[in-house]
């Protein structure tokens, strides 16, 4: 009875950063909390919630969606180059309405069956969200949507500067080994560090690098850090991260543990017709191509990819977002190339696809990907070989793990050439060794998320942790030892 009461009293506000990849995995996380008997308020920005529309309908009476303004004009593009501006606007302009909403939810719930909010799980890239919660007496955790290996690299930034491994010259050898990230000394290269490390100076003044340094320092002070990962994939990296945090939970891949409808957190409307197209293709015959929700390429890069895919000779399904090819490029040339590719039913080009369904389809033989962490986990869970062409942030290090650590695919970073695309696609489709490694990892991941597996056990521990926080006396919350300043 006491355990049931604790679950009923626990009400978690989950607050992701307003990006597709962040919303995706935190939506699965919210579904897991609801499945464990907790109430969840999922907090979007107004802009994201409008884009979701009817897809944001609650799937449980214990899950609801709310939103706050992000402080930017409605017509602001909120594109990949605007990430720092968006997060800063949320911090400076969104924190006041966030504080007001959270305070009201803490005082009395809403009278509609939701108890008062007792805990906040905030995106680790938004430190203010955790800080505001603690300031008004609500215990908070942070959720990092990136891989453990990339978090470890961020934790090692100061060490990299001390060793003189960054910054490195723009014309320097990108294959020079990097020794300053523990556990990765034998395989990490300059080109595998987050792309912005190439732009930083002695003063570490690249805005993305500076944000990563500040965010990671904040995470170390948080009550706990949640990572969407599995011991079978990132055990060594996780072992180096854990001692640097107050507590840390490895609870993934969340999409495999707590499935939700594909549209539930999607800011893009998927072309469901692509599934019928896949139904008409032979087993393991199709190359699936998706570079995620933020990657932008030039018309020249698009052309190299297209020629390489056609030359490889396999049917392909390509996700080409409307905003993906640079706006200054020729729309007519792009349309002509797409039409040519789709002749004879050898290709299908769509604006967005239900990716988890696609990767689980029998017809898909390999995945050409930007190596975003969600995509990497989804491919790993299905045992699909990958060809990785990373764009930014943690994708560079993720792709190195795919090629050099797990052996589940090929790392094509820093190259956009039709001949290389053709060669790597063929190898990923035809290599028995890569496919065997991918399928072995998938079997291990399934064990991790099954009852009794490492991720399932960690999630159970996390739910207990949240329930314990939720039962704390309010005076204890207000006098928490959590320190906002270093």
UniProtKB/TrEMBL annotation:
One Pfam family from the record: UDPGT
InterPro entries assigned to the protein according to its UniProt record, in alphabetical order: UDP_glucos_trans, UDP_glycos_trans_CS
Keywords per UniProt: Glycosyltransferase, Transferase
Protein name: Glycosyltransferase
Signal peptide positions (record): none
Enzyme's top EC category: transferase
Family: Belongs to the UDP-glycosyltransferase family.
Keyword flag Calcium: no
EC number: 2.4.1.-
PANTHER family, sorted: GLUCOSYL/GLUCURONOSYL TRANSFERASES (PTHR11926), GLYCOSYLTRANSFERASE (PTHR11926:SF1392)
GO molecular function: quercetin 3-O-glucosyltransferase activity; quercetin 7-O-glucosyltransferase activity
Gene3D superfamilies, per the entry: Glycogen Phosphorylase B
Source organism, top-level taxon: Eukaryota
């Amino acid at each position: 009875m006491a355990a049931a009461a604790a679950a009923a009293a626990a009400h978690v506000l989950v607050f992701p950063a307003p990006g597709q990849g962040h919303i995706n995995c935190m939506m699965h996380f919210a579904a897991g909390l609801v499945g464990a008997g907790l109430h969840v308020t999922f907090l979007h920005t107004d802009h994201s919630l409008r884009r979701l529309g009817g897809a944001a309908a609650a799937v449980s009476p214990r899950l609801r969606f709310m939103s706050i303004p992000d402080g930017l004009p409605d017509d602001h593009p909120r594109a990949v180059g605007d990430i720092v501006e968006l997060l800063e606007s949320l911090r400076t302009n969104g924190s006041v309405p966030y504080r007001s909403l959270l305070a009201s939810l803490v005082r009395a719930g809403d009278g509609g069956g939701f108890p008062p909010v007792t805990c906040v799980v905030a995106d680790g890239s938004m430190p203010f969200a955790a800080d505001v919660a603690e300031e008004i007496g609500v215990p908070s955790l942070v959720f990092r949507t990136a891989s453990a290996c990339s978090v470890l690299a961020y934790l090692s930034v100061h060490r990299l500067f001390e060793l003189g491994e960054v910054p490195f010259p723009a014309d320097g050898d990108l294959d020079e080994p990097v020794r300053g990230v523990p556990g990765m000394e034998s395989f990490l290269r300059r080109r595998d560090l987050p792309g912005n490390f190439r732009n930083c100076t002695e003063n570490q003044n690249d805005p993305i690098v500076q944000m990563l340094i500040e965010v990671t320092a904040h995470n170390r002070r948080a009550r706990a850090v949640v990572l969407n990962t599995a011991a079978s994939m990132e055990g060594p990296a996780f072992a180096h991260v854990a001692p640097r945090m107050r507590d840390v939970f490895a609870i993934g891949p969340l999409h495999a543990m707590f499935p939700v409808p594909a549209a539930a957190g999607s800011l893009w409307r998927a072309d469901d017709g692509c599934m019928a197209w896949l139904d008409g293709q032979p087993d393991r015959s199709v190359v699936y191509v998706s570079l995620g929700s933020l990657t932008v390429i030039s018309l020249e890069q698009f052309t190299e990819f297209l020629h390489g895919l056609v030359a490889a000779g396999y049917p392909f399904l390509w996700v080409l977002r409307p905003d993906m090819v640079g706006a200054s490029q020729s729309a007519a040339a792009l349309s002509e190339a797409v039409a040519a590719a789709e002749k004879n039913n050898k290709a299908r080009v769509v604006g967005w696809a239900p990716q988890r369904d696609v990767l689980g389809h029998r017809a898909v033989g390999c995945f050409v990907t930007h190596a975003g962490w969600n995509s990497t986990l989804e491919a790993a869970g299905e045992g699909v070989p990958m060809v990785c062409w990373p764009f930014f942030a943690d994708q560079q290090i993720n792709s190195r793990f795919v090629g050099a650590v797990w052996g589940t695919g090929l790392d094509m970073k820093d190259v956009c050439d039709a001949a290389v695309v053709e060669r790597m696609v063929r190898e990923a489709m035809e290599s028995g060794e890569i496919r065997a490694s991918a399928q072995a990892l998938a079997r291990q991941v399934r064990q991790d998320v099954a009852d009794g597996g490492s991720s399932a056990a960690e999630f159970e521990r996390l739910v207990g942790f949240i329930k314990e926080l939720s039962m704390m006396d309010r005076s204890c919350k207000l006098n928490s030892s959590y320190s906002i300043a270093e």
